[in-house]
Structure formats: C-alpha cells, structure tokens
Design brief:
alpha+beta, 21 helices, 51% helix, transmembrane helix, Cytochrome_P450_monoxygenase, monooxygenase activity, heme
Length: 535
C-alpha cells in the first residue's frame, strides 16, 4: 500500500514536470519579449533568487534595472511577470481583478490547512466572506477594542521588559518579546482568547500557540512539493487524502498533521463556546468586542444565504489568528529596529508621545501626526510581505502607465498576458518606485508624510493604505489593515514613553519571507539594548 502511494506521488510529480517541459518545447511564449534577468537554470529558473531568504539584492535589481513589468523565469521555462507599474497594478487589483485570482497553490494550501474561509475562497464566495466580516473591522468596533490593546501593551511593558532592567540598560531579544505580544494581541482582540501571560520567565504553554510556531517552518520544508498540490487535491475525497498522507513516513508531514489537528480543534472549541453563550444570551457577550464575537453575533441574525456554517467559522478563526500574528510581529520588530537605528527619529517621536496623556482615546491616538508618519514610512519602505502572486484566469491585456521597450526594440504600451500566467504583485518595488516617490524613495524619511498623505506624490496607487501597496488593494486587500495600525500605535505609545532603544549588534540581517523576519547568524533574533527613559 505504501509503495503504491509513493509511486502515485512520483507519477504526479513527473506529470507536472512533463507538462511544463512540453509547454517549453512547443514554442516560445508571447511574454518572451519582456525584459528580465537571465534564467539561473532550466529546472528552477530564477525562483531560488526571487524567493531566497537573502534575495534583497535581486529584488533591488528588479526595481532599479527594469521598468514596471519584469519577466521572471519559473520552473522548467515557465514565464512569469513581476509587476510594479501603477496602471498594471490597478488592472490586476481593481479594474480587472476577476481576471487575476489567487494562485491555486495558495488557495488549495490554505483550504487544506484551515478549510473554507476568506483566504481560501474566490469569486462570489470570497465576496460573501468579506462582506460578512467587514463590519467587525469598522472604526466603531476598533474603538471598542482599544482597552484590550492597551491592556496587552501594558503587560508587555511590565511583564516582558521591566523585570530585566533593574540594574540598568540591557540587551533583550525583541523578536521573541514582540512575537509573543503579537500573538496575544490577535488572541485577545481577534478571537477573545489569551494565549500568553506575557510574564518574564513564563513562556506560553498553550497548545495552540506552540502549534502555530511549528506551522510555517513545516510548510517551508515541504515547499518543493507545493507545485503538485493542484493535482493531489483532486484525488478522492478529503478523508482519503488525509489517509494517504498519514501513511507517508515523513516527520515533517507528521508534525504538520498534528499542528493542523490542534489548531482546528482549538478553533472549533472557541467557536462552540462563543455560540453557546450567544444562544443562552450571556451578558458577557454583550461586552465582547473581539473580532470573532462581533462576527458570531452578526452571523446569528444574518439571512440564511449569507450565514457562515460552523466549518466556515472554524476556518475564519484560524485564518484571523494566522494572518494577524506574523505580519504584525514583523512590522513591530522592524519599527523598533528602525527607531534604534535612527535615534533622532526616536527622540522626536518620544517627545510627541510624552506630550500627551498616558492612555489615549482612539481619535487622539490616530491623530498623533509623527507617530502616524513613522509607521507609514516604515511600512512603505519595509513592507512585511515583499510580493504576492496572482494567476491569470483568461487571456487579457495588461495596461502600462509608461511604455517599456521589448527585447526586440519595439515600444510596448500594453502587454498581452496569456491564461495561466503567474503574476507577482511586487509590493516593495511599487513602494520604492522612484518615478512615484522621487529620488529619495529608498531613504527613511517620516517627514514626507503629512496628514496621512505623502508630499510631492502625484501618481495614484491602488493600495488601501497611504498610496502604498503594503496592504495591497481591491477585493482581496488586507481586511484588517486598520486593526494592525492601531496595534502598532498602541505599542509604540506605551513603550516609548518608558523605554529607549539602541542597536546591540551590527550583525542583524532581515530574512526575506512571508513575512520578513530579523536574524543574527542564521537564528531568528533582534538584539536591542533597552533602557529606561530619563524624565
């Protein structure tokens, strides 16, 4: 039985290789005329350079040496596009968004891991999920979440930092501290559950939290097999596929299977507990302002054709936790690192914060101009996710804001893109585009932002956040981008009032990923010297 399963997997892999090789042998692609870097190999193209943990220089080359749309060589000669032209991005994300869908690998992977939710659905089904969830992220509801966010930030300050500073400034691993804090933020404000006590020397022993830490590493170890997911997902019903996977002697698959089981079980328990309280009219639910409680209360009165089923609610729970943890952690770590590298910015920001009361209302917090500018500039220059993919669902024309010159010397005002083409939404490249942001686009300058708008920028981008692509745009833009901003502002307003940050090592390197993460000598670390503010 095991031998036949392995043979089946090998056959699927060889089929994938054969089909791509046949496509390459049958003739050139109409995209071959688009300029781009040379292929590194026939087998992997330039994908290793594009997705490598230390690929920042390669992305910089794509940004600076090419003009808006770049040809990338994929597996076995497959031609892909790396896009940061404003008009092209508007077409992909807004005007023609139905022609550019999430990649099948991403959709199938999230569906297999979590079930049917906002990340794993497309078309009208995705729009239904988004429509039901959007009200939970309204400004009114965010105001209601603010006390919980402050509570978590105070526990961070008093439980994870303060106990270490009794003898003066000390080097702390802010990566570990802020990762724990991000999970607790999304736990408390996202699903109404505490994952971590945020106490010094008392790491979280919550099973869900431990499983979440193992999820991404396990997926990365299986990355080489992801291209065959669309084929594997069609073999039999889900129960049969799980049975097959359990028979494969892989330690990584075993870990992943256990992680998914724990996460699904915990998410189901959270949904069942909240639904039971709603059915019994528990008074405690009246004051519950976390995203899942708001969603469940809304779902209980929704029309039957709009209502989420139980398995969908379970999937949404895990997706909210996953999507809200790693990206927020990456953004928090980057901002603290940037402030440590720019003491003059840190001092100016601290002065603005100290000049206010200790606990601010929602409007007072979002109204702090320099705090807003620092966060916007950091997220512009260092978006947690560098690029996202879309798959073209039918032959289409991609417009350009500025023409490019093809390899044959012809002027191209638009690009004919064939069905099935993988397209990268180049988030960082769009945020760094000197044609939009000016010659100082790669400089960290919070002063370029005033009242939420970048000065001197006339080209309109399709992103939902400050003319940047950090949270992308259109129907699949980040639904919780205002929630993330609020988290960042609460943390900075609490920590900078008490502590100052300086760089502890010049060996800190940021590893490219989804999302990016700090590293020292290959280990996930952000060593920062933390001291008390002298007031």
């Amino acid at each position: 039985m095991l031998l036949s399963i392995i043979q089946c997997g090998l056959l699927l892999w060889l089929s994938y290789v054969f089909l791509n090789a046949l496509r390459w042998l049958c003739g050139s692609s109409i995209l071959d005329n688009i300029p781009g870097p040379p292929s590194e190999s026939f087998l992997a193209g330039s994908l290793a350079k594009l997705h490598g943990a230390d690929s920042w220089d390669f992305h910089k080359t794509l940004e600076e040496d090419f003009n808006g749309v770049v040809k990338i060589h994929g597996l076995l000669g497959d031609v892909q596009l790396y896009v940061f032209d404003p008009a092209a991005l508007h077409s992909i994300l807004v005007k023609d968004q139905d022609l550019y869908e999430e990649s099948s690998i991403f959709l199938i992977l999230t569906g297999l891991l979590f079930g049917k939710g906002i990340l794993s659905t497309t078309g009208n089904e995705h729009r239904r999920h988004r429509k039901i969830m959007m009200p939970a992220f309204s400004t009114k509801n965010l105001r209601g979440m603010l006390p919980v966010l402050y509570e978590v930030a105070h526990r961070l300050r008093d439980g994870l930092i303060k106990p270490h500073l009794g003898a003066g400034p000390r080097e702390l691993d802010m990566y570990s501290i802020l990762s724990r804090t991000s999970l607790e933020f999304v736990g408390r404000a996202g699903v109404g559950y505490s994952f971590d006590p945020l106490a010094s020397g008392e790491d979280s022993i919550d099973q869900y939290a431990q499983s979440l830490k193992s999820l991404t590493p396990a997926i990365h170890k299986l990355a080489v097999f992801l291209p065959i997911l669309p084929l594997v997902s069609r073999i039999g019903p889900p129960a049969f596929r799980r049975f097959m996977l359990n028979l494969i002697p892989s330690k990584t698959l075993t870990i992943l299977s256990k992680v998914v089981a724990v996460m699904n079980s915990k998410a189901a328990a959270l949904v069942d507990d909240k639904n039971q309280k709603i059915r019994h009219g528990a008074d405690v639910m009246e004051n519950s302002n976390d995203i899942m409680s708001l969603l469940l209360k809304s779902n209980s009165t929704a029309d039957d054709d709009m209502k989420f089923m139980h398995d969908e609610l379970v999937a949404q729970t895990s997706m909210i936790i996953l999507a809200g943890t790693d990206t927020t952690s990456s953004a928090l770590n980057r901002i603290i690192h940037i402030l440590a590298l720019h003491p003059e910015v840190q001092a100016k920001l601290r002065a603005e914060i100290i000049d206010t009361k200790e606990t601010l209302s929602h409007d007072e917090l979002v109204g702090l101009p320099y705090l807003d500018a620092v966060i916007r500039e950091t997220l512009r220059l260092y978006p947690p996710v560098t690029a996202m993919t879309r798959t073209v669902t039918q032959d289409c024309i991609l417009p350009l804001s500025k023409p490019i010159t093809g390899i044959d010397g012809r002027r191209l005002d638009a690009i004919a893109v064939p069905k099935g083409t993988e397209v990268y939404i180049a988030i960082a490249a769009a945020n760094h585009n000197k044609a939009i942001w000016g010659p100082d686009a790669l400089e960290f300058k919070p002063e370029r932002w005033q009242n939420g708008h970048a000065q001197g920028v006339s080209v309109r981008m399709s992103g939902v956040y400050g003319n940047t692509m950090t949270f992308v745009g259109g129907g699949r833009s980040c639904i919780g981008f205002k929630f993330v901003q609020l988290e960042l502002k609460v943390v900075l307003s609490v920590l900078l009032r008490c502590y100052c940050f300086s760089v502890a090592s010049d060996r800190i390197r940021w590893k490219l990923g989804s999302p990016a993460a700090p590293s020292v000598d290959g280990r996930p670390l952000l060593p920062i010297v933390v001291g008390r503010v002298n007031t």
